[in-house]
Write a sequence for this structure.
């Protein structure tokens, strides 16, 4: 049986220029990202060595690059691209990505909108 653990990074905050609305893409706004990565941690734990796990600094760099250097209309697409890139770069079993758009352009009282994508190893 595999010892599976979870690495979480929560409330990463970025200013970016995404959205279906032209004003959103011009003015930009704040986004938050959470990830949960499930992976086999046995070797990392036994050897107490970051080389045998997913380095959260590397994960952060991937997320930062996707959300700040590319442009998307949908937060769903942002979440999908983050999940895809992490699955392609790290030996992980599952990733859950949540992307929140703070203060979306909705007439009403609302904190945020959030999209969640779950990707698993095939």
């Amino acid at each position: 049986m595999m010892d599976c653990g979870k690495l979480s990074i929560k409330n990463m905050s970025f200013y970016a220029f995404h959205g279906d609305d032209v004003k959103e893409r011009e003015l930009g706004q704040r986004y938050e990202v959470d990830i949960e990565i499930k992976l086999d941690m046995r070797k990392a734990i036994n050897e107490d060595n970051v080389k045998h796990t997913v380095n959260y600094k590397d994960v952060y760099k991937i997320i930062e690059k996707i959300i700040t250097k590319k442009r998307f209309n949908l937060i769903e697409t942002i979440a999908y691209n983050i999940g895809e890139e992490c699955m392609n770069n790290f030996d992980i079993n599952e990733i859950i990505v949540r992307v929140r758009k703070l203060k979306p352009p909705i007439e009403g009282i609302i904190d945020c909108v959030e999209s969640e994508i779950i990707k698993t190893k095939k």
Summary: The chain has one domain: 4-120. The first helix runs from residue 22 to 27. Helices lie at 22-27, 42-47, 56-69, 75-89.
